[in-house]
Amino acid sequence: MDYHIRPISWPELEAFHGLMAVFAEVFYDCDTYLGSPPSDDYVRRLLQQDTFIALVATAGDEVVGGLAAYELRKFEQERSEVYIYDLGVKEAHRRKGVATRLIEELRSVARERGAWVVFVQADLGDDPAIELYESLGSRESVYHFDIQA
Questions:
Q1: What are the residues whose beta carbons fall under 8 Å from the beta carbon of 149, sequence distance 6 or more?
Q2: Confidence at 148, pLDDT banded by 50, 70, 90
Q3: Structural domains of the chain, count
Q4: Of the candidates 57, 59, 74, which has an alpha carbon nearest to the alpha carbon of residue 116?
Q5: Which pLDDT tens digit goes with each residue over 83-105?
Q6: Where in the sequence is the domain holding 119, given as residue range(s)?
Q7: What is the DSSP string of the chain?
Q8: What is the CATH classification number for the domain harbouring 21?
Q9: 8 A C-beta contact, residue 67 and residue 82
Q10: 127, part of any domain
Q11: Is residue 143 assigned to a domain?
């Protein structure tokens, strides 16, 4: 199957909603991704921010995967890091290089923006994700903390 990887930009609401549906399916979390969808105005502002990156993988007209990432501008040097917040591929399209191609496209975007690294977290026990990320980069052992606002 031929997959096309591309960024989402405003006003591509259909692609954005397709990405949210993919995330809801692959993360088994309809409430978060589909339960209270953002307004079109919110999506417009998000997609127009230069610090938000959304990529989709399509097969024909169907969104089959994608990622959402953020560029974090550093203060200690004139450079940035890109953080993959979510990455998902529908089950029928896994193990076909889609996630790797999404990350490779993100790496290209990151280089264009002057980023020095792309980083991502993986949950313990998510062996396929860990295997993918280890094949593309180096592993660090860190703790993650959620501090309520």
A1: none
A2: confident
A3: 1
A4: 74
A5: 999 999 999 999 999 999 999 99
A6: 4-136
A7: ---EEEE--TT-HHHHHHHHHHHHHHTT-HHHHHSSPPPHHHHHHHHH-TTEEEEEEEETTEEEEEEEEEEEE-SSSS-EEEEEEEEEE-GGGTTSSHHHHHHHHHHHHHHHTTEEEEEE---TT-HHHHHHHHHHS------------
A8: 3.40.630.30
A9: no
A10: yes
A11: no
Please state, in angstroms and rounded to a whole number, the distance separating the CA atoms of residues 5 and 60: 11
The arrangement of strands across the sheet holding 80-89 comes to: 4-7, 52-59, 62-73, 80-89, 115-120
Half-sphere exposure of 141 (CA within 13 A, CB side): 0
Is residue 142 situated within a structural domain?
A: no
- Say what the pLDDT of residue 21 is: 98
Q: Which residue has the higher pLDDT, 1 or 26?
A: 26
What's the CA gap between 128 and 106, in Å, rounded? Answer: 19
Q: What is the pTM for the complete model shown?
A: 0.89
